[in-house]
């Protein structure tokens, strides 16, 4: 899973909190101090460690943060130092503007690279988030599939058709999936794969609730109980399976998160079986 560090000023926490949950729903693993720092941990020790362990560093910029001196500037410099050690052309640092601010000319003197050297994304624009996700996925396309190794296996000849089938479903999911995905006789392994794919596409309860409500007119609290998110996801699957609505659930999940790799591969495998 692609790990993403979110560097930001404290004044921008509301906007970055929203970005954090959107990235989680898209199948990424963002690191956000508000969520990931545990009580009693030293943030001065944990933040450099998190930056080092991340695949992508997102510099969240606003009219407030670009004027601010302090630790956020140090985080940006850490990212520039990491960029200096990476092969040319490899994406690591992505400036993201939260508003119409000026990108600061923060420079790594030894190698002559600056924050302003890298193409930024305007998150406040209607297509801003989509452009951000597309850039990350395009760069880490190979890695995006690494977490599918625990999926139920299908015959080799079926896997060879995954790419074209997935593309077809992405372009016309309502028509393709309705006829291709079996309505009954789901195996335990297929249910388990569906559960894993849905958890990958909707790792937080708010995202799952929103998808069920807007796409299926289903209210999570009315059909699913459980001690944790994983148990509630199983309850959703069981409830909709009893109504023969699993194909509908899969189509809705794919519409809500069309870029999720696990979900796309599951649909391709089910369609080919």
Task: Describe, in plain words, how this protein is organized in 3D.
By secondary structure, this protein is of the alpha/beta class. The protein has 2 domains: about 1-145, Rossmann fold; about 190-270. It is about 55% helix and about 10% strand. The protein is built from 15 helices and 7 strands. The strands form 2 sheets. Strands 2-1-3-4-7 form a 5-stranded parallel beta sheet, with helices on both faces. A hairpin with a 4-residue loop joins strand 5 (about 105-110) and strand 6 (about 115). Helix 8 crosses helix 15 (about 260-270) and helix 11 (about 205-215) crosses helix 14. The radius of gyration is 21 Å and the shape is elongated.
């Amino acid at each position: 899973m692609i790990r993403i560090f979110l560097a930001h000023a404290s004044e921008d926490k509301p906007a970055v909190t929203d970005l954090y949950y959107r990235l989680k729903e898209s199948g990424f693993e963002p690191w956000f101090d508000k969520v990931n720092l545990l009580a009693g941990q030293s943030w001065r020790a944990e933040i450099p460690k998190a930056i080092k362990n991340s695949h992508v560093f997102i510099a969240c910029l606003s009219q407030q943060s670009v004027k601010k001196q302090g630790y956020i500037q140090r985080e940006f410099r850490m990212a520039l130092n990491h960029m200096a050690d990476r092969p040319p052309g490899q994406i690591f640092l992505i400036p993201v503007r939260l508003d119409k601010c000026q990108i600061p000319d923060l420079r790594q003197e030894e190698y002559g690279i600056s924050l302003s050297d890298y193409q930024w994304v305007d998150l406040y624009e209607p297509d801003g988030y989509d452009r951000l996700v597309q850039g990350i996925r395009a760069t880490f396309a190979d890695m995006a599939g690494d977490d599918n190794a625990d999926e139920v296996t299908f015959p080799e000849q079926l896997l060879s058709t995954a790419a074209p089938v997935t593309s077809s479903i992405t372009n016309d999911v309502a028509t393709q999936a309705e006829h291709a995905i079996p309505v009954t006789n789901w195996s335990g392994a297929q249910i388990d794969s569906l559960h894993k794919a849905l958890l990958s596409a909707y790792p937080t309860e708010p995202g799952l609730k929103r998808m069920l409500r807007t796409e299926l007119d289903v209210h999570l609290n009315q059909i699913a109980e459980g001690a944790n998110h994983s148990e509630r996801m199983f309850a959703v699957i069981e409830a909709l399976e009893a109504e023969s609505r699993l194909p509908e659930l899969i189509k809705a999940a794919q519409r809500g998160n069309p870029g999720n790799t696990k979900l796309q591969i599951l649909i391709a495998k089910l369609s080919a079986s």
